[in-house]
Amino acid sequence: MKIEIFFTPGCSECVAVHAALRKVAQESVKDLEWRELNVLDDLDYAVELGVLTLPSIAVDGELVFTSMPTAAQLREALRNRTRTSA
Amino acid sequence: MMFTIGKLASLTSVSNDTLRYYEQEGLIEPAGKSPAGYRLYDTDSARRIRFIKHAQNCGFTLAEIRELLALRGRDEACCGDVRTRAVEKKLQIEGKIRAMKAMSKALDQLIADCANETQPVNECTIIAALERAAVPKPMPRP
After folding, report:
1. Which of A10, B27, B80, B136 could potentially form a cystine with B22 if both were Cys, beta carbons 3.0 to 4.6 Å apart?
2. Which domain holds residue A56?
3. How far is CA B122 from the centre of its chain?
4. What's the pLDDT band for B134 if we cut at 50, 70, 90?
5. Is B127 part of the contact surface with chain A (CB cutoff 8 Å)?
6. Which residues contact B59 (CB under 8 A, 6 or more apart)?
7. Residue in A14, A51, A56 to test binding to B, most B beta-carbons within 10 Å
8. Residue in A with minimal Cα distance to B81
9. Average pLDDT score over residue span A56-80
10. How many CB atoms lie within 10 A of CB A77?
């Protein structure tokens, strides 16, 4: 599963929670590909996915969160996706 | 220094009606009243109006400008908060540009398909194509 966080440098909220979210993702998903994307470096890709607000999180190329989720929200979303794809 | 609405309008090159609208929307407010009861505005109002105009030129809506003005006056806000809003606005604009390019490309196809402009309108290939066209489905995600 590929998880991509789109952020903008200087977002203090992002820096503080990235590590916590990554830990949750590692615990919830076996084959995890974790990417942290500076939206200015990957603008075309962000626009292609429909990112309009920051931070946003895409899972397997689908925009899932358009604001920073809590660790519990991310865990729940990943569990639901794993269950659906199983 | 205090200004009447007319003076403020000429200072900022904005119409009186627009200034009244800004006031109604809470973007500016009079700093006082003249002895005759006319509303008076200070230099901060002029500064806010210039801010509003510049922000509009960058594509921000009045609702978004209100948030920017609020950030400007908030002690705990930092430049990163404003920058994030600017990046989000850029994302919106880039998304619109992409959508408009797709529209332009669709028109290119219709124009190219219409090889004979002397045909009667009931045989026009553009009209026929628009009548046939199904509502596009969203692109599959990669």
Report:
1. B27
2. 2-85
3. 39
4. low
5. no
6. B89, B92, B93
7. A51
8. A11
9. 93
10. 17
Instruction: State which fold the B1-58 domain adopts.
Output: Multidrug-efflux Transporter Regulator; Chain: A; Domain 2 (1.10.1660)
Token duo for residue B1: 């220094």
Tally of residues, chain B = 142
**Interface membership of A12 toward B (CB under 8 Å):** yes
- Nearest Cα residue to A33 out of A10, A72, A61: A61
* Inter-chain CB proximity B88 and A53 less than 8 Å: yes
pLDDT, averaged across chain A: 89
Determine the residue among B64, B83, B84, B139 to mutate to test chain A binding: the one whose Cβ has the most chain A Cβ atoms within 10 Å.
B84
Q: How many domains does chain A have?
A: 1
Confidence band for B119, pLDDT divided at 50, 70 and 90: confident
Q: Domain containing A74 — which CATH number?
A: 3.40.30.10
The residue ranges of every structural domain in chain B are 1-58
Tell me: ipTM over 0.90. Answer: no
Residue contact A10–B80, C-beta within 8 A: yes
Specify whether the CB–CB gap between B49 and B14 falls below 8 A: yes
Question: pLDDT tens for residues B19-31?
Answer: 999 999 999 999 9
| Residues in A touching B141 (Cβ below 8 Å) | 49, 60-62
SS3 state at A41: coil
Min Cα distance B102 → chain A (Å) is 13
